[in-house]
Design goal:
There is one protein chain. By secondary structure, the chain is α/β, with parallel strands linked by helices. It has two domains: 3-18 and 234-432, UDP-n-acetylglucosamine1-carboxyvinyl-transferase, Chain (Alpha-beta prism), CATH 3.65.10.10; 22-232, Enolpyruvate transferase domain (UDP-n-acetylglucosamine1-carboxyvinyl-transferase, Chain). The chain contains twelve helices and 25 strands. The chain has a four-stranded mixed beta sheet. The mean pLDDT is 97. The chain binds shikimate-3-phosphate. The site of shikimate-3-phosphate (S3P) has 11 residues, from helix 5.
Length: 433
């Protein structure tokens, strides 16, 4: 198990570029594979999660060329959705997006395939996609009540369109149904309690696949084939979030990040940090498939806030690092309506609460959130990442503010979403002492 050791730094000023957006990279691969020709993808995130999707598509007969070193520039040869039956089970690694979106894609294929995952992914509920995809005519079998992996999917070339009222706001559920809906006859719709990230809708529109949003409902029509087009993936706001908090919570700090995704369904982290007192300026370019641009953060003393309701889906992956910001802010921050955190790569309510307490922070945990009282000094501690990349990175940032040394045990999981994070932390330690 790898260890990452972090110590307090006095200053933090940086100009950075973060690697490609994970959610958008998965979609760029899958949708271009469905398309009618070659698509070049730039800014692709060559991290373990997205490589799991890339390998899965390759075993389904999709040709993918690497055009530059580092794997961020690739060409995918669309196969009109005519995938070949893989010879072996597909390993989705740690990636929930791979398993759930691929299940939608495979539901329309006339063969049976098995999807496996690592220990963390094999604990996560797949009934949330198995139920609607089953209603459409695929047969998905998993383990136990929550239909956990390994999953066996028997696809069906004649799927039925449905209108599904999802009990949770989840882009993974919505996207799995939309992908299956492309293979069904007529109109398939999904209604969510609150809108989740809309990368699927935007990218399909960009590839000229008609889909519409009316209120909290998204609809798509079957029988359409995405048109092959080149896709530029912006930097991942979820990766930028670690540096945004590192800068926002420090008096005198300044951070510039260019070419980062600024999709309104993902920028909850920016809105919250501004509410907590950070100064953030944005410059947005809306001309591509996704809004992207530059942000400049100026740090200062943060104050507590409340986060709940429809804001939660816009920052669901950023709650661990927001919790660190809350520990550095004056007052008590309340996070609620976030019980989805319990079924992420780890149970992020209990892992965040336990690790913050180890650093001397007062945290009250409840079923769908927590209350964090910030403002006192944090102590370096032994942190368990529990196989969860966002926990490992959030507490590495906490270590930049804590007295003494912070040791992140199991830091290898950072590779699932942010290759290069450890190099950035090490550089910062070298110059910020
Ligand atoms: C993702 C959606 C979110 C998010 C995950 C990536 C996606 O999950 O937590 O990291 O790419 O669609 P849910 O849609 O289940 O909330």
């Amino acid at each position: 198990m790898a260890e990452l050791r972090v110590r307090k730094v006095k200053d933090f000023s940086a100009e950075l570029k973060v690697p490609g957006d994970k959610s958008i990279s998965h979609r760029a691969l899958m949708f271009s594979a469905l398309s009618n020709g070659p698509c070049e993808i730039t800014g692709f995130l060559a991290s373990e999660d997205c490589i799991a999707t890339r390998n899965a598509l390759a075993t389904m007969g999709v040709e993918i060329e690497e055009l530059g070193s580092g794997g961020s520039h690739i060409r995918v040869h669309g196969c009109h959705g005519e995938f070949k039956k893989p010879e072996r089970a597909i390993d989705c690694g740690n990636s929930g997006t791979t398993m759930r979106l691929l299940s939608g894609l495979l539901s329309r294929c006339p063969f049976e395939v098995t999807l496996t995952g690592d220990e963390s992914l094999s604990r996560r509920p797949m009934n949330r996609i198995a139920v609607p995809l089953g209603q459409m005519g695929a047969v998905i079998k998993g383990q136990g009540d929550r239909c956990t992996a390994p999953l066996t999917i028997q696809g069906n070339e004649k799927l039925t369109s449905i209108h599904y009222a999802s009990p949770v706001a989840s882009a993974q559920i919505k996207s799995a149904i939309m992908l299956a809906g492309l293979g069904a006859e007529g109109k398939t719709s999904v209604t969510e309690p609150h809108p989740s990230r809309d990368h699927t809708e935007r990218m399909l529109n960009f590839l000229r696949v008609k889909n519409i949003r009316e209120g909290d409902t998204v609809s798509i029509w079957g029988g359409q084939i995405p048109e092959s087009r080149d896709i530029e993936v912006p930097g991942d706001i979820s990766s930028a979030a670690f540096w945004i908090v590192a800068a926002a919570a420090r008096d005198g700090a300044r951070l510039l990040i260019d070419k980062v995704g600024l999709n309104p369904t993902r920028i909850g982290i920016i809105n919250v940090m501004v509410r907590m007192g950070a100064k953030i300026a944005e410059r947005i370019d809306e001309s591509g498939c996704e809004p992207m641009g530059a942000i400049e953060v100026t740090g200062g003393q943060l104050k507590a806030t409340e986060i709940c309701g429809e804001e939660i889906p816009t920052l669901i992956d950023e709650i661990p690092i927001i919790a660190v910001a809350a520990a550095l802010a004056q007052g008590t921050t309340v996070i609620k309506d976030a019980k989805e955190l319990r079924v992420k790569e780890s149970d992020r309510i209990s892992t965040v609460a336990e690790n913050l307490r180890r650093m001397g922070v007062q945290v009250d945990e409840f079923a769908d959130g927590m209350e964090i009282t910030g403002g006192s000094s944090m102590e370096g501690a032994e942190i368990k990442a529990l196989g969860d990349h966002r926990i490992a990175m959030s507490f590495a940032i906490a270590g930049l503010f804590a007295e003494g040394e912070t040791v992140i045990h199991g830091s290898e999981c950072i590779e699932t979403s942010y290759p290069g994070f450890i190099r950035e932390i090490e550089q910062l330690q070298a110059i910020g002492r």
